[in-house]
Amino acid sequence: MLNVYPWQESQWQKLLFTLQNDRFPHALLLSGPYGIGLHRFSQCISSVLLCRNPVNYIYSCGQCKGCHLYNAGNHPDLQMITPEEEGKQIKIDQIRDLIDFINLKSQFEGYKIAIINPADTMNWNAANTLLKTLEEPPAQSLLILLTHRQNLLPVTIRSRCQHVNFKPVFDEGTLNWLKCQLADPHQAEQLLAMANGAPLAALEFTKNNGVDKQLMLLDDLESLQRKQIDPIKVAERWNKSGANQIFQWLLLLISDMVRLKSSAKPLRLHEAKAITRLQRMINGLDLCGLMMCHDLILKNYSLGTGLVSYNTQGLLEDFIIFWQELMDQQRG
Ligand SMILES: [Zn+2]
User: Phi-psi category of 87—alpha, beta or left, where left has phi over 0 and alpha has psi -120 to 50?
Assistant: First the structure.
């Protein structure tokens, strides 16, 4: 039986309340940071709605034909739309297929469900095409849109969905959950901090050396400051390892620098050694420069992942040049 994650319980209960009271929406927008479990949440909704005998509206029974088909991954009343290639856009033809699908009669006289993930990768034409179905949804249909960057979705789309938002979580219950998943529970607090309160991302860090990679980014920023490495080669390497992730980590690092500069404790880096390195890097830098740096990363991150395709290596080079200039000003 599929359950929502512990930190999703309040959103889950609210949604169930609308289901029990016959006020379930036709479109849901699930948003939150990467690693908060949007996909699992959408699976739980789908499995309950497609079950023929849900227990108290809350759990799928696991026994009926609907549940068997769902668990086998081939329920005919459920469709999932994702970009055809990773990192690319969802195209208009995919949305047209989705609309055809959702308008066909359900095979089990129940719900028709379509999940769009990530919804912010729909290009303008695709988003516009979806709009009409959002305005006039067929009976017993549900569209579930998933996004980690809801601000990239057109307002027209956002305003036609019931919004379920998930914020970063740092509470005791989540920490305990994470501790149970880790070989070394003592790492939980540091990992959750570095993953900015996204427990699944924290877990992923243990598998893909996320913490070490973030510290390597710090190495690169230091080497760039000392002009010990070729900026173009750094951009190339960052781009190869995934520009999105690098932009997110840069944002977290710069946020910590801004906090240090304002005499606040860094939120992501806990290790005293790493904090000393940050402190050394920002000595002589003013808050305004750091804020400009933060804004530039945010802008380039949005451009690199938005509806229009930009060259992400160019966007990373843009940041690196700005960073080095900032450091030169500090020396000068
Ligand atoms: Zn069932």
Answer: left
pTM: 0.82
Distance (angstroms) between ligand 1 centre and the Cα of 45 equals 13
Same domain (yes/no): 292, 304: yes
Q: What's the gap in Å between 154 CA and the centre of ligand 1?
A: 36
> For residue 45, which of 92, 4, 93 has the smallest C-alpha distance?
4
Residue 23 CA to residue 55 CA, distance in Å, equals 18
The DSSP symbol for 141 reads E
- pLDDT, greater one: 253 or 58: 253
**C-alpha of 100 from chain center:** 28
Please give the distance, rounded to the nearest whole angstrom, from the Cα atom of residue 53 to the centre of ligand 1: 5
Which amino acid, one-letter code, is at 95?
I
Q: What is the largest CA-CA distance in the chain?
A: 73
Residue range 267-288, pLDDT digits in tens: 777 777 888 888 888 887 888 8
Q: Is the pLDDT of residue 300 over 90?
A: no
Number of residues written out for the chain = 332
CA–centroid distance, 55 to ligand 1, in Å, is 8
Please write the tens of the pLDDT for every residue from 40-96.
999 999 999 999 998 877 789 999 999 999 999 999 999 999 998 877 889 999 999
The total number of structural domains in the chain stands at 3
- In terms of domains, do 145 and 233 share one? no
The answer to whether residue 68 is domain-embedded is yes
Lowest mean pLDDT among 82-86, 208-212, 229-233, 296-300: 208-212
Q: How far is the CA of 133 from the centre of ligand 1 (A)?
A: 28
Ligand 1 geometric centre to CA of 67 (Å): 4
Residue 110 is part of which domain span?
6-81+93-120+130-165
Residues 308 and 326 in one domain: yes
Q: Is residue 300 part of a domain?
A: yes
- Rounded to the nearest angstrom, the distance between the alpha carbon of 130 and the centre of ligand 1 is 30
Going from the Cα of 24 to the center of ligand 1, the distance in angstroms, rounded, reads 19
Number of H helices, E strands in the chain: 14, 5
